[in-house]
Amino acid sequence: MSDTKVNFIFAVLFSVALACGLFAQEAKVYNSFHPGDLWLDNNGIHINAHGGGILFRDGSYYWFGEHKISGRQGNKAQVGVHCYSSTDLYNWKDEGIALSVDTTDENSEITKGCVIERPKVVFNEKTKKYVMWFHLELKGQGYSAARCGVAVSDNVTGPYQYLRSYRPNPNKWPVNATEKDTTIPEGGDTTLLKLSGNERAAAGYYLRRDYPFGQMSRDMTVFVDDDGKAYLIYASEENYTMHIAELSPDYTSFTGKWYRLFPGGHREAPAIFKRNGIYYLITSGCTGWAPNAARFAVAPSLFGPWEEKGNPCIGKESEITFNSQSAFVLPVRNKKDAFIFMADRWKPENPIDGRYVWLPIEFIDDGIRIQWSDEWSLDFFD
Ligand code: GAL
Predict the structure, then answer these.
(1) Which of 269, 271, 222 is nearest to 248 (CA)?
(2) Which CATH architecture fits 3-381?
(3) pTM of the predicted protein model
C-alpha cells in the first residue's frame, strides 16, 4: 500500500474515533444535562457505564454500568462493570472497574466474553456490604442461560467479588399463582405450543416449564424498600412476564417469596421508584437494541395490584422513548419529588459510543410524564 493510502486510512480511522469520543478530550465542567450528547468524565473520556444504576452513599453518587468496547464485540463483557462517582450528578470521576471479568479462568461464569448487563449496586445495612446484581449470560450460549449474577464488596467502588449466579426460585410458586397457573392443562402443556408466546405465558406454560429449575432472569433492576427489604425485578418467562422476587436479608440470595407481574405482557428494561407510598415501574417493549415505546404501571405494594398506565413519554419521538431504553430511575437527594429517568441510546455496532438519555420525571394528576429536553439542570425540580 502507498504511504498516501496508509495516511488516508489512518486519518479516517482517527476522525471516526475522535467523533466517537474514544480519545480523551479536554475535560469539561458541566452545570447541566445534555441528553444524547457525549458525556465526558474527569479525564475527558466519554462515560462508559451503560445499562447502569446509581447508588448514593456518604455524600456521593456512584454510577455503575456496563463497560463497553468498540465494535460488535463490545456487546459482550470484555472488561466488566465500570464505576464513576459524583457529588453534583453532572460531573463524574472515573473510579475504575468495580467488577472485572475473569481473564484467567475460562471456566469462570464471568469469563471474558460472557454477557454482563444492567448492573445495579445496593448497600446492605446489616452486613455493611455492597451488593451488585446483574444479568449474566454464559460465554458462547447467546442469551439462553438467562441468569442473574451477584457480587459483593466492602468498598463501594470495589473490587467486587463474584459469588454466584441464579435462575431464581426453583420449586417455588409465586405468591399470586392461580390454580390454573400451577395445573397442567388437559392433554398436557404441549397443547399450548400452538399459542403465541404471550398467550403461552398467560397460560402459565413457561412458569410450569421452569418451575423445577428456577425461573429465567434477563433485564433486571434491584430495589431496596423503606423497610430495608430488597427485591430483584427481572424479565422472565422468555421475556413475556416480569417477576419481582424478595431477596434474603443479606441481599445475596432469594427468600422464595415472589410475584408475577403482567403474565404475557412482554416487557423488559425495568426501572422502579417509590413516591408517597406508591410504586412506579417503567418498562420497555422487547425489540432488542432498537428503541420502542415505554410504559409505566403503579401499585400500592410491590406485590400488587399493579395498574397499567400507558406511555409516560410525550412529544416528538415519544413512541421510541426519545430513541432510548429505560435503565434506572434516580431519586435526587435534597429535592422534593425529584426523580431522573435514566435511559440508554444503544449503539450495537459500536457500543462504546452508546449515549445516555437522562430526563426529569414530572408528576401529573394520575401518573407521570417525561418530556424531551436538549439541556436541563436540577433547577427543574425547584
Ligand atoms: C435488550 C435489553 C438489553 C440487551 C439487548 C440485547 O432488549 O434491554 O439489555 O440485553 O436486548 O439484544
Answers:
(1) 222
(2) 5 Propeller (2.115)
(3) 0.94
